[in-house]
Design a protein that fits this description.
With 255 residues, this protein is mainly α. It has 13 helices and no strands.
C-alpha cells in the first residue's frame, strides 16, 4: 500500500482508538492500523490534554476553581469516552481476585465493584484538585498537554514488554498482536519531545514528569505481570490514566 495512505490510516486509527471522535467512519481499520498508529498516541494524548487544559485555563477566569476543574475533567472524559477510567476501574476490581483466571474474568465483567468505584472516585478527586490548583493559568494547558502526551506512551511500551494475558480478543490485542520495539521507542520519543517542547526550560519539571511516567508505567507493568501473567487493554488504559495523574501531580508539586 502507498506509504502516504498507510500514514493516513495510522493517524485515523490513533484518533479512533483513543477518542470517540468519528474518525473511524472514514475508512475501515484493523489491528495493524492501530499498531502503526500507536506511534502517534502521544500526539493524540497531547491534543486531548490541550482540550482539558484549555477548558481549565479559560473557565478558571469565569468560575470558581473547583467548578472550572470539574468541567475541564468532564470535557476530557467526554472526548475519550472515559476509556482509561474504565480500564482503571476494571483493574482495581480484578486485581483483588485470588487467581489470574479469576482476575481476568472479573476484568471482563464491566460492572464496577467496590474497588473499581473507589479507584474512580479517588482518581477524579485528585484530578479535579490538581486542575483546580491550576485553573485560570497557562500552566493548566501546558501541564495537561505534557501529562496527556507522556501518558499515552504507556500502552505501546507495555504491549512490547509483556505478553497479552486475555484468552479472547480485546482492545489491547491490537497492540499486543503486532508488537514493535521500534514503534514503542518512537512513541516514547514523540511523547518525550512534546513534553520537552512544553516545559524544557524548567529542567526540574521535565525531570519530574519523566520520572513520574517511568515509575508508574514500571509499577503497573510489574503488578500486571505478577497478578495476570501479562497485559490487557484494561491494564494499558489504567496505566495511561495513572501516568497522566502522576505527571500532573508531579508538575504541580515542583511548579
Amino acid at each position: 500500500m502507498n506509504p502516504f495512505l498507510l500514514g493516513l490510516r495510522a493517524v485515523v486509527a490513533a484518533f479512533s482508538f483513543l477518542t470517540v471522535l468519528p474518525f473511524g467512519r472514514l475508512v475501515a481499520l484493523d489491528g495493524r492500523d492501530v499498531a502503526r498508529g500507536s506511534v502517534l498516541f502521544p500526539a493524540v494524548g497531547a491534543a486531548i490534554g490541550a482540550l482539558t487544559g484549555s477548558a481549565a485555563w479559560l473557565l478558571g477566569d469565569q468560575l470558581p476553581p473547583m467548578l472550572a476543574a470539574a468541567l475541564a475533567v468532564a470535557v476530557g472524559a467526554a472526548v475519550t469516552g472515559a476509556l482509561h477510567l474504565d480500564g482503571l476501574a476494571d483493574c482495581a476490581d480484578g486485581f483483588g481476585a485470588r487467581t489470574p483466571e479469576d482476575r481476568l474474568r472479573v476484568m471482563r465483567d464491566h460492572t464496577n465493584g467496590t474497588y473499581g468505584g473507589t479507584a474512580l472516585v479517588l482518581d477524579l478527586l485528585i484530578r479535579v484538585g490538581v486542575l483546580a490548583a491550576l485553573a485560570g493559568t497557562r500552566e493548566a494547558l501546558v501541564f495537561s498537554v505534557v501529562a496527556g502526551a507522556l501518558s499515552r506512551t504507556a500502552g505501546p511500551l507495555l504491549a512490547v514488554a509483556l505478553p497479552y494475558a486475555q484468552d479472547r480478543p480485546g482492545a489491547g490485542e491490537a497492540l499486543s498482536s503486532h508488537p514493535s520495539q521500534p514503534r514503542a521507542a518512537a512513541a516514547l520519543v514523540v511523547g518525550g519531545s512534546i513534553a520537552f517542547a512544553c516545559i524544557a526550560p524548567d529542567s526540574a519539571a521535565y525531570a519530574a514528569a519523566l520520572v513520574a511516567a517511568a515509575v508508574v508505567t514500571t509499577l503497573v507493568g510489574w503488578t500486571s505481570r505478577r497478578r495476570l501473567g501479562g497485559v490487557t487493554g484494561d491494564v494499558m488504559g489504567a496505566a495511561s490514566e495513572l501516568v497522566e495523574l502522576a505527571v500532573l501531580v508531579a508538575l504541580v508539586w515542583v511548579a
